[in-house]
């Protein structure tokens, strides 16, 4: 017989408890930070001065104040939260599925194909005739790219094949986007396309929010349920399969979930890079590297970073740049050095 | 212990990329026995274990576990019954040892529920059995190869599987831990589990296994008690070695002495 240990329930459970407490503290801190940033984001902007400006305006001109709040600040803030959460969550899931800390939502082509779909709408002038052609075109673009990814991935959805297929899709969409720019009907149209691709939350309405919300919720629901499968994948695909997970189905679900949410996000805001790479990476050590624990933390963390970045963009635009600084440009400026830092750290760690 | 048949493999065929890797392999393992799977590299040991674990698809034949055909079991049921220790023990994120071993409980967890006291007890038992209780809170990235190998075994044991499939469980272990792991498998078999393990060390296989199944080029060439299977002519034919076979302290000792591949020149 196997020697049975005297049951000492306190020993492992107390460890488990401190872990639960630490995880709860992290989520609580992130949520608190997000709430503060949401309030700041609602208060700060071009049309009012300082943090108290909007509140003062409510006292003197409540109608205008309400208009600014409900038509400008509220949709903008909601979008930063939705898009940030999407990028953080999809990044965490894709890094887990591909078991690669350098993965991000754009890797498999969801972002660039959404951008291409929107650019096509610009190019043929549909966006001028019909306001929501742009986001809808973006979603169609993502759907097409996802279908292509599945066909290229084959039945096994082999990880390396998926990444290479993503690279192929990214270069194809980049080429087609360049083609559209090349033959843009006017320099103004080309500029409009480029500006849109840069990624921004400026001048979005509640309709944009509703449009992005439904596919985002579908995507989140698909992604948030993958926690345990991602934990199992830590041990490799064979072991995950013997632990009861259908690994190809897990991959398909991750790709469809990320495509829904990221496609919706890019379709209304343009391309915002690096958030999906940076956020899971920074938070991973704080959740003890557990992929399942990373999902909720990375979702809230993504929203925190995105909202902070958008507040930063508005502050910089007001004080330094004058011309509107696109939030996608800011995240890329911060993200690229971070990516290099990450490569150096990984090289030193010898992985 | 003359227990029920835990694992019944009936004339299975497995093909990978149209290359036949296993041909007509049958194997029946009773609860309580330890079966050693031996054969040269590429003989199909790993493929046989993967097929039983449900990872490598069969092109023909059937596998049943505890009398239940493989195909009729759900993924979750199969995961509870069969524990699989792959050769590849990579852990892709630097989790702590306890959390890795906890992953072995995944088939038993209720959806959306945390680990219960029962899960924690199974994890603790597995950590103890593999002699890594002291390492429980260490990160896997700080362990030696042998320690990490024991973590993988503990992860597999934590699921309390009825059938244990281990692909070279002793690879990378020091002599003491090699002996301990195989003795543990014996004890687990004594407690009613069935163990199938691929081994390269023929002496250890002879000593700890009730039965030896020998594979060569995807076919089963022998299935019997160690003293019957490990004969000089068979080892020469299958492994291409001249082996010295002796008895030491009443146990079979098989010492590979010279490779015959050089003079057979194929």
Task: List descriptors.
heterodimer; A: 351 residues; mainly alpha; 15 helices; 77% helix; B: 266 residues; alpha/beta; 6-stranded mixed sheet; 12 strands; 33% helix; 30% strand
What's the helical proportion of residues of chain B?
25-40%
Number of strands of chain A: 0
Total beta strands of chain B: 12
Instruction: Report Rg of chain B.
Output: 19 Å
Cα separation of the termini of chain A: 41 Å
Assess the beta-strand content of chain A as a share of residues.
under 5%
Our measurement of the CA-to-CA distance between the termini of chain B, rounded to an integer number of angstroms, reads: 45 Å
**Major sheet details of chain A:** none
Structural classification of chain A = mainly alpha
The global form of chain B is globular
Q: Structural class of the helices, strands and pairings of chain B?
A: alpha/beta
**Helical stretch tally of chain A:** 15
How large a portion of the residues of chain B is in β-strands, by DSSP E? Answer: 25-35%
pLDDT average of chain A, as an integer? 86
Poorly predicted runs of chain A are 6-14
**Largest interface: which pair?**
A-B, 35 and 48 residues
Mean pLDDT of chain B: 91
Q: What kind of assembly state do the chains in view correspond to?
A: heterodimer
| Radius of gyration of chain A, taken over Cα atoms and rounded to an integer in Å | 22 Å
Order of helices and strands of chain B: EEEHEEHEHHHEHEHEEHHEEH
